[in-house]
Structures are given as C-alpha cells and as structure tokens.
TrEMBL record:
<dbReference type="Pfam" id="PF01529">
    <property type="entry name" value="DHHC"/>
</dbReference>
<dbReference type="GO" id="GO:0019706">
    <property type="term" value="F:protein-cysteine S-palmitoyltransferase activity"/>
</dbReference>
<keyword id="KW-0472">Membrane</keyword>
<dbReference type="InterPro" id="IPR001594">
    <property type="entry name" value="Palmitoyltrfase_DHHC"/>
</dbReference>
<keyword id="KW-1133">Transmembrane helix</keyword>
<feature type="domain" description="Palmitoyltransferase DHHC">
    <location>
        <begin position="160"/>
        <end position="299"/>
    </location>
</feature>
<comment type="similarity">
    <text>Belongs to the DHHC palmitoyltransferase family.</text>
</comment>
<feature type="transmembrane region" description="Helical">
    <location>
        <begin position="263"/>
        <end position="284"/>
    </location>
</feature>
<keyword id="KW-0808">Transferase</keyword>
<dbReference type="InterPro" id="IPR039859">
    <property type="entry name" value="PFA4/ZDH16/20/ERF2-like"/>
</dbReference>
<feature type="transmembrane region" description="Helical">
    <location>
        <begin position="83"/>
        <end position="112"/>
    </location>
</feature>
<feature type="transmembrane region" description="Helical">
    <location>
        <begin position="204"/>
        <end position="221"/>
    </location>
</feature>
<keyword id="KW-0812">Transmembrane</keyword>
<protein>
    <recommendedName>
        <fullName>Palmitoyltransferase</fullName>
        <ecNumber>2.3.1.225</ecNumber>
    </recommendedName>
</protein>
<keyword id="KW-0012">Acyltransferase</keyword>
<dbReference type="GO" id="GO:0016020">
    <property type="term" value="C:membrane"/>
</dbReference>
<feature type="transmembrane region" description="Helical">
    <location>
        <begin position="119"/>
        <end position="139"/>
    </location>
</feature>
Length: 370
C-alpha cells in the first residue's frame, strides 16, 4: 500500500508473502473440502521451516551449537581475564621490585665485602645488564600493540573473513576475544602482560621470558650459599623450652638479621620457582620459533598434519625457512652486528615485514608434497 504523501510503498518480505500465500491456499483448500488436517499440518511444517531458517544454515554443526551454548561462559572468562590482567601486571611489578630490593639490601653488600675484585665486577655488570633487559622488554611487551589489520583499506590480501570483526583477515591473523579485535600473527593472549602477543611485540615477549629466566637463574646461583646459611639459621634458633625461661637469654639473632634471613629464603624460593616455570615456557617458544610457528598455528598445523596423513600426503609449514633464518626473522637480524645491538642490548627496532603479507617457501600452486 502507498503511504500518504510518500512516493515509496511498503513491501512485505519474501518470507511473509510466502506465509500469506500458504494461508490463502490452505483456506481455499478447506473451503473446497480438501480437509483441514493435511493443510494445517503442511502449514505447521512450513512455519517450522520458516522459523528454522532464521537461525539455521548449511554451515551449522555440533561445534557451532556448542559455541552458542557456551557463549556466556566464554564471555565471563574473557572479561575476567581482561580485568585480572591489570592485577597480574601489578603482581609482576611487585615481585620484580621485591627481588631487586632484597638483592640490593642483602645480597650485594655481601658480594662487595667478601668477594674478590674480578667477581665483584662480574656481578655488578651481569646483574645490572639482566635488570635493564628485563625491565626494558617487559615495558615494551606490555605497552606495544601487537598489530591489527587495517580496516580502511580494501586491497588487503586476505585468506578469510573474520566472523567477529566482519573484515578481511590476512594470513596468520586471528581474532582475540579478550582484546575484541584481530591480531596480526597472533601467538596468544598473555594475562601477565595484559596484552596479546602478536607481530609487533612477539620479540619483546620472548626476550622478556629469556632474560627473566636468566635473571632468576643468576639470583638463585648467586644466593645459594646465603640461602643455606639463612635456612639453617632459621631452623636452629627455636625458642627455649619452658624449663629454661627462668633466666632470660638474649636472642641468637637480631630482628634485622632474622628479617634478612627470611628475605634471602624468599628470594631463593621465588627465583628458583620462576626459573623452572619460565624455563619450560621459554623452551616451548624456542621450539616454535625454530619451526616458524606460533602457538595458534601449532594447533592448526597438528590438525592439518593428521588430515593430510590420512590422504597419504605430508604437510609443509609455508612459513618455515629453516631454524637459523627463522631466528633472524624473529629478532630482525640483517647483519652480524645486529646480534649484539638488537639481541644483547635494548633495541626498539620494528620487526621485518608489515604482518599482512608473508614470504612462503613454496608457491600456492603446490602447497603440499606427496
């Protein structure tokens, strides 16, 4: 029908017109004596089919239904992780600060007063170098955005469309539900950084894990003798029994010495535990870097390996250029001196490439080898 004063008409949707057409056909059949049972059943079936078309398509499967059912759980986990990220970052800063304070107040004075001059120089250089590398890379890893695909360009090479962002998704790009955006070369979302690990900060994350592990090993080894003495001092100085409390005896250690003993024990236990945990994590990421993979791609490639194995084929990672070349790409090493200036010293140089296009070891015409 035409609206008053307007030049356009209301048009019923195709689905509604089909429903009306079926209703008219059912009424005509009912009037002509066809019987209402079959027409009513057919109309009911059609109504169910129409309702099902609003939420069902050919791509719907059990995984889609499970995702829909667990969507509230995913939402809660994502939001809790996002808010807890701030607490985790604060905890990391607090623990690093406590270790630094204990080293400067308890460990370093012993080194300066008892160690020979060469060892003093070594500890001053090594300890402060590790401290600078840890602080620099943690700051850069938490504050550097991992990178997202451009949304204002239509010529971005893409391999699929993100179902959440509804934008073209380049190769090695994945959607992070916690950050609510697509991340270039996404590795994972790290709550200890409160940030995603992607193309622009992957090097900072790995360098932080590596130097943090080395710093924890350094603190554990340097304070092992002081830990033994402090632990024995705490264990062998119990309070006197009641029968001997008639004559008050002075304590074996002062409050300052007791506090120092507990601080040394806390330092050694903390650094040793973190060294083991970070050692396993650093080893895992080292293996991934040597293979030219990220954590997300590792799971995808494993499924692809099993699928192609059943077809009698062998999967080849298109981004694996050899272990040494993979490490050069990771640290953006272009000449031999870069191993010192870009790996052993703080450097904020950008990674190789834009994170959108990648060099593959084979052509797209022959991605698999039989």
């Amino acid at each position: 029908m035409r609206l008053s004063g307007g030049r356009w008409t209301w048009k019923l949707s195709r689905a509604m017109r089909l429903v009306l057409r079926r209703c008219r056909a059912w009424r005509r059949g009912h009037k002509q004596g066809w019987g209402g049972g079959g027409g009513a059943g057919e109309l009911c079936s059609y109504a169910k089919l129409l309702l099902r078309s609003l939420y069902y398509n050919s791509l719907t499967n059990s995984d889609t239904l499970l995702d829909c059912a667990f969507e509230p759980v995913y939402w809660i986990v994502d939001n809790v992780t996002r808010w807890f990220g701030v607490a985790f970052v604060s905890l990391v800063v607090l623990l690093i600060s406590s270790v630094v304070i204990i080293v400067y107040t308890c460990v370093l004075p012993v080194i300066l007063s008892t160690y020979p001059a060469p060892w003093i120089v070594w500890h001053l250089f090594c300890g402060h170098w590790l401290l600078v590398m840890v602080v620099f890379h943690y700051y850069k890893a938490t504050t550097t955005h991992p990178g997202r695909p451009p949304k204002d360009k239509s010529d971005v090479p893409a391999v699929s469309i993100c179902k959440k962002c509804i934008v073209p998704k380049p190769a090695r790009t994945h959607h992070c539900s916690i950050c609510n955006t697509c991340i270039l070369k996404m590795d994972h979302h790290c709550p200890w950084l409160n940030n995603c690990v992607g193309h622009l900060n992957h090097r900072y994350f790995y360098s932080f894990c590596l130097y943090m592990m080395l710093a924890c090993i350094y603190c554990s080894v340097s304070s092992r003798h002081m830990f033994t003495e402090a632990y024995n001092a705490i264990e062998v100085s119990p309070s006197p029994p009641p029968s001997l409390r008639v004559v008050p005896s002075p304590p074996s250690f002062t409050f300052r010495e007791t506090t120092a003993h507990k601080a040394i024990v806390f330092l050694w236990v903390l650094t040793s535990s973190v060294a083991v945990a970070l050692g396993a994590l650093t080893l895992w990421h080292s293996i991934l870097i040597s293979r030219g993979e990220t954590s997300v791609e590792r799971h995808i490639n494993r499924k692809e390996i099993r699928r192609l194995r059943e077809l009698g084929k062998v999967f080849r990672n298109p981004y694996h250029h050899g272990p040494l070349t993979n490490w050069k790409i990771m640290f953006s090493v272009e000449k031999p001196s870069d191993w010192v200036t870009r790996v052993l010293l703080p450097s904020s140089h950008p990674p190789i490439g834009d994170g959108i296009t990648w060099d593959c070891v084979y052509t797209r015409k022959d991605p698999m080898a039989i």
